[in-house]
Amino acid sequence: QMPGTARHDREMAIQAKRNLSKTTDPVERLRLQCLARGSAGIKGLGRVFRIMDDDNSRTLDFKEFVKGLNDYAMMIDKEEAQQIFQIFDKDGSGTIDFDEFLVTLRPPMSNARKEIIMQAFRKLDKTGDGIITIEDLRGVYNAKHHPKYQNGDWTEDQVFRAFLDNFDSPYDKDGKVTTEEFMNYYAGVSASIDTDVYFIVMMKNAWKL
Fold first, then answer.
1. Entry's SMART domains (predicted)?
2. Which region, left, alpha or beta, applies to residue 89 given φ > 0 means left and ψ of -120 to 50 means alpha?
3. Angstrom distances, CA of residue 70 to CA of 32, 48, 81, 82, 209
4. What is the mean pLDDT of each run of 10 residues along the chain (209 residues)?
5. pLDDT confidence of residue 1
6. 116 and 204 in contact (C-beta within 8 Å)?
7. Residues 156, 137: contact at Cβ < 8 Å?
8. Which domains, and CATH codes, for the chain?
9. Could you give phi then psi for residue 61, rounded to 5 degrees?
């Protein structure tokens, strides 16, 4: 697990489950259902939609949207799904842009938080191509302290891969982490942390920024 995130992840999931019973806002309910699965919850839903987007249009019609929610086992009835869909289908075209949908679903973050997340991303993205890979992690992230490396179970590359898998989504781990995935992951973590100051301190410590 990532430095300092396992505990936050659990706290956030518990908090999300607790808040679910209180909220009536359909978008907030969907957001909390995703967060109840941990920091990668929203990203996971994004992957489900991406798999369904056969023609690569990056849009979904209502039928695809409902199927995606069902595939991801979201507890949402058709009426609620319709409400959510209408909120996102601003122009009434009958389709929604799912990148926009995921950004809106992500818990809102202050610019200060986004900036520190991007600092961490840039530190890890040694090649500067906007994607973090195993190659990038050599020399930035120390595998030698990992217990599985120490007891000989894993090679250095396996440690790196497991590390990237934290940020990657559960259904499509490709060993590459984009800015969007990194941001989505930390939006989840961020949701469990009340103050910017504490979030920034946590990030600085975790990434030695």
1. EFh
2. beta
3. 16, 10, 10, 14, 40
4. 60 86 89 85 82 83 91 88 90 86 84 95 93 88 86 90 77 80 83 84 87
5. 43
6. yes
7. no
8. 3-105 (1.10.238.10), 111-207 (1.10.238.10)
9. -90, 175
